[in-house]
Amino acid sequence: MPDEREVADLADVFGLLSDPGRLRLMVVLLDGERRVADLAAAAGLSESATSHALRILRAHRVVSVRRAGRMAYYALADAHVRLLLDVALAHVAHSEMIHDHPDGRVG
Amino acid sequence: MPDEREVADLADVFGLLSDPGRLRLMVVLLDGERRVADLAAAAGLSESATSHALRILRAHRVVSVRRAGRMAYYALADAHVRLLLDVALAHVAHSEMIHDHPDGRVG
DNA sequence: TGCCTATATGAACAGTTGTTCAGATACGGT
DNA sequence: ACCGTATCTGAACAACTGTTCATATAGGCA
Fold it and tell me: B28: which of B63, B85, B93, B99 is 20 to 30 A away, CA to CA?
């Protein structure tokens, strides 16, 4: 068993991934940096909710910001989170295939 | 972007992993099935809190129960969760090495 | 300077979550 | 049947979380 500190950090990371809105934001960011308004639109959140969510992700250094004029470009900055997202999404795709499309034809 | 249903399911799984107590329970279960009292002791939770946590994990089919007399043996029953735990723990170990023990000697 | 746009923030609120405490259920041993 | 032990459950409660609404900051442009 990892020590208490590591378990708490891990639980924290999972906590960041556990909100659907925040999760959608991170999934969008897997494709590369995005502006706040674009993230909001892609994730189906209000711009305020998006800004609040990004603030939390920033505080945990999961995302980084690049400012250009009045725009703010956010990007995924945490390799651990990126890895977990990749694994999770790969599994989702795989499960969908074997459970819903047993013959492998999805489209 | 996966559809809304899949994102919600994913967020749900991450939510299960996001509580330190529940996370410790699942980490212990990685090693094989355990009785409730043993899980409680290993995770540092009261037996009541453990039972409540296991109830939630059972409801989400993350764990399964094998009953033998008055004992209940719990086991990890979800491959997705097991995979995420493996990845997360591997990364924790790796990060600890490169951040805290750059020369690779951990003990 | 004044206006518009992009993003950030604070307060308030509702909904959710994990814990504890007390008690219930159920099995095994005697 | 009785007792002790293992597990489960429900109610109550405090703590936390995400959203909205209103407002603030701040850059670009006329």
Answer: B99
C-alpha A68/C-alpha A100 separation (Å) is 45
pLDDT tens for A55-66 read 999 999 999 999
Nearest CA in chain A to B13: A18
Strand-pairing partners, residue B65, are B74
Q: What is the CATH number of the domain that holds A53?
A: 1.10.10.10
**Is B14–A15 a contact, with Cβ atoms under 8 angstroms apart?**
yes
How near does any CA of chain B get to the CA of A58, in Å? Answer: 18
Total-model pTM: 0.92
CA of A43 to C1' of D28 (A): 28
User: Is residue B94 included in any domain, yes or no?
Assistant: no
One digit per residue, pLDDT tens: chain B, 107 residues?
889 999 999 999 999 999 999 999 999 999 999 999 999 999 999 999 999 999 999 999 999 999 999 999 999 999 999 999 999 999 887 777 676 655 545 54
Do β-strands B71-76 and B63-68 pair in parallel, antiparallel, or remain unpaired?
A: antiparallel
Inter-chain touch B23–A10, beta carbons under 8 Å: yes
Å from B20 (CA) to D24 (C1')? 37
Alpha carbon of B3: minimum distance to chain A alpha carbons (Å): 10
Domain contains B23:
yes
Beta bridge partners of B67: B72
β-partners of residue B68 are B71
Domains of chain B: total? 1
In a domain, B88, yes or no: no
**Residue A57 sits in which domain range?**
4-77
Contact A20 B2 (CB under 8 A): no
Looking at this predicted complex, what is its ipTM? 0.92
